[in-house]
Structures are given as C-alpha cells and as structure tokens.
Amino acid sequence: MALHQCHRSNIACFMFLFIALVRSWSSKGFTYGMRLSTNDGDEIDCVDIYKQPAFDHPLLKNHTIQMKPNSFPSGLQATNSSKILKSWLKKIKCPKGTIPIQRTKAFNRRPVIPPIPNGKHSKGINYFIPPANYEFAQVATHVGRYYGARATFNIWLPNVVDPKESSVAQMWVLSGDRGELNAMEAGWESDGYQTTGCFNLDCPGFVQISGNYALGPVLEPTSTYGGSQYEIDVIIHKDTFNRNWWLNINGEEIGYWPRNLFTSLADSANVINIGGQVINNQYKGHHTTTQMGSGHFPNEGFGKAAYIGHISYVNNSSVLTDAIDLVRYAGRPACYDIIVGNDIELKLAGVHVFYGGLGFSNQCK
C-alpha cells in the first residue's frame, strides 16, 4: 500500500465530535440550503437549524432547540501565549437561522464504532482496558462525579501511513462500565476518520446552534517544530438548569448533546480521559509508523512535542478546577508516551501534558 503523506488533499487535521449511545437509529438525511466553498475545497451547506441531522434521532422527536446555555462554569482562566486558532472560525458564516454542515458523500458515510472503553471502576480507580489495535498516551482523573471538562489542544499534522489508521488528540467524557458506557469525545485528528468511525454531524443526536463553525473541515495552520504553535480550546460543560451537555470551542457555544440521549451520562460523568490515540494496524507487518502528536516524544518539551493545556474538570458547584493527581497511562511508552509538564513556556496553561511519539523504531516493534 502506498505511503500517504500529510497533504491537505488526503490527510489533514479535523475537528470532530463523537457521541456513543446505548441505542441505535437510522438517518433519513436532511435538506440542503445555501452552499459555501472554503479555500481548502471543503463543501459547506448552510442547513435550516430545524432540519439538521440531530432530529433524525427518534429520541429528539418534537425537541425544542435550546439556543444558549442557562449556565457556564466559573473559574475560566486565560489561554497561554500560543496562538488560538482563528482562521477556521473566519472561513464560515452561514445566514441567521442556519448552521454549517460539511457535505459528506454517501460513499464516505461510516458505521458507528464503539468509544474507547474503560474497564471496571472500583475503589476510585479507573482500570483502563484498550481495545485491540488502539494505542494510547493519556491521563485520566480518578473516578468521581464530573460535570464537564476543559482542554486546550496544541494542533499538529502527524503523518498517517495507512488510510485505515488515524492519529487523534482528544478528551473523553465518560460514564458507565463496559456495556453501559456512555461517552462524549471532542478534539482533533489526522485522517478525517474516513474509514474508522462516525463523527461530527454524520450521526444524529448533537444539536448545533452556531452558524460560524462547521465540524469536520480542515484546521489550519498547524504547529511547526521549533516554530509557531497553534491551539484550540475545548470545553464540555453541563447546563445546571436542564442538564444538557454543551460544547464550547474558543469561547463560542457550538451546540449540545440533549440529556435524554444518555443513560449513565444523564446526570454526570465519572471519568475524564485526555491525551493521544493511534490506530495501529501493523502496517507492513510491524508496528505502524503513524505518528502521535508532533511525532516527537514528550521529553523534547514546548515547541517540539505536542501539548495539551488547561486540563481541568467542572465540579458539582459548576467551577472549573485544575485536574491534579492525574493517572498516567501509556500502553507502549517506547512508541508513544505522555508526561505531566512543568514548562515555563506554558506557565499560564495550568495543568498540562506533553505527549506523542513516532511509532515504529528500534525500540518500538
């Protein structure tokens, strides 16, 4: 199989959402409105907000759209000196009453895959059990009650060598054990999950209210080794009034997951995981050379290794709180690793981690 280079035409960084539910449904499609084209070649449809795919979900029949949250967590701190990604926001502006949806060709639609499972939660410990072919470098909170999470993701363009593989940086907001697991995920990934999942608005359930952001188009610019660093700030938080889960990106409310979509997440999450993930299909018979993060190991530090800053959770008083005493997990540190950082360049980033790796090497086979 030919090596896939990180060109914008095939592999790029995307913003994605993933919602994992216990129930299933079928999508009936939606009506397109005005179409926009970005400089990257993305086709964006401005769709009537009341005709978006969310309402294909049987649990959202006769759902009344909530146009803004009734509450927002207190304790939000400023971002660090790196550049919050702005160009993505500027590219898209749909008319009032519509939302931007990236056009997805029928042959690119994918079935739902399960979220990243956790093992049993006992005595306040999260026993992480990775599925086959998935490799992780992440940190996790201890088991508790969480009403949201925040992370600022440094954006890179890791090389992905197999179209059935992907490299992801994200947060997992989770509740339940194994078969009863509910999950919300948000972050960026390289590959677009063209063959590996169901994301963004492809699956009904997430109700988008923002007319400025489309979920799925290319994120750019990306960070460079020893050069400019770019990042995107992501917050998932629970509305304390009606209990819907909201997604906030760079300070803008994008939309929400209605509470009634969930079972174990209907009230609160019990674990938050944050970090990197690579699907390793043993390309060419050995460990993949698909990179995680910047493709460099965390000990190289700021500007060279990928970082995730402002790692925090929302407590039961709706206050963003630094996530201290994190549990570190790296399944194969010689391939991909993660460390909790103490870098002066990220002194305003609160709790932060460096993570990543290059995959196959003499130490990673």
TrEMBL record:
Q: Which domain of life is it from?
A: Eukaryota
The signal peptide stretch is 1-27
Q: Does the keyword Signal apply?
A: yes
Q: Name one Pfam family in it.
A: Neprosin
**Where would one find coiled-coil regions in this protein?**
none
Q: Which UniProt keywords apply?
A: Signal
Record domain Neprosin PEP catalytic: where: 127-365
Report the protein name in the record.
Neprosin PEP catalytic domain-containing protein
Record the organism: Erythroxylum novogranatense
